[in-house]
Amino acid sequence: MGGAGVPLRELGLVLLTAAAITYLMTGPVRSLLVRTGRVAEIRTRDVHTQPTPSLGGLAMFSGFICAVFLAEQLPALTRGFAPVTPEMTAVVAGAFAIVIVGLVDDLYELGALTKLIGQCLAAVLLSFLGVTFTVFFVPFGDGTTLILDQVQGMAVAALFTVVLINAVNFVDGIDGLAAGLGMIAGGAILVYSLTILHDQAGAVSAYPPAIICAALVGICAGFLPHNFEPARIFMGDSGAMLIGLLLAAASISASGKINMSLYGTADFIALISPVMVVGAAVALPVIDLVWAVVRRAAKGQSPATADAGHIHHRLLRLGHTHRRTVLVLYTWVSAVAFGAVSFSIVPVRFAVGVTAIAVVAAALLTAVPLLSSREATGASGRRPRRSGSRRR
Description:
Radius of gyration: 21 Å
Number of strands: 4
Number of helices: 14
Strand content: under 5%
Structural class: mainly alpha
Helix content: 55-70%
Shape: globular
Distance between the termini: 43 Å
Order of helices and strands: HEEHHHEEHHHHHHHHHH
């Protein structure tokens, strides 16, 4: 990763700036919300027990904007901005739009349809200004490259963005989960982008996703100390939807603009499309979203109806503590996301081995309550009583 054309120090500075600004801004935002009485009340499906401020997305957006402004001033990263490429301008505009929608929703609770319309407008703005799919490399057969026209690329990009916005928003139901998953998924796509920068000698198309992900990892890392259990502030829809939009933008930029047919078919990186890599990075939130829609439709409910059937709720009911639930989900996302990325940067055998070990570790961590229960039952002849955690 340290080859010529890979601006590691500059991207590291962007990441640290995003983290520092977000961390420092979150405290004042929380204080303002507490003084003005803007706190999230307890709902039946919530796992927290104290009313908590819920506009952390404002601090996260501040960190993102400052990081992007810094990146634009660094000579090594100027290839990621206009006039070379319009993508960063599109991302800033889309991020601003989605944060406005989120802030209004956090303050006044928009209806499901109104919020969806706002999400669609932000997604269309993002794709219209330049973050669109243009090519798909099919890694099977003769390695066909599918070319999308402007309308097709914008439509697919907008739909993908709305799906990811809602996926992250749906999974944001437990302290530290959305911020941690955003940091992990963003880190995986960042590693992938750095691989492309290295292999394609600083390809212009790999600069925007690298910058987006560096800033995304930074704002999530900066917010997490305030949000990890017990959370002192929530990111709210403004923060969760911002993470979803940035993940979508980075994913589209990394997979929709890089022509993988430049690689030889003997190189294993040609066998894993960027779409598969970024798909793995955001697999868990998307699975949870699809599962929620199917579950609610089967009950005759609207897909927007809130419930306590998400993956994190089920892990809590399984017997995991609040923090262990978050760590289990962190482990699964890390195993899948970095497992997929590892195939592009290390030998195949090593990647398979590391991925298999990570998946087994995640599975064992998930099964801890069941294993503990069996051991206790076998020793005493009866199933132990649960203590009744306040977080269940």
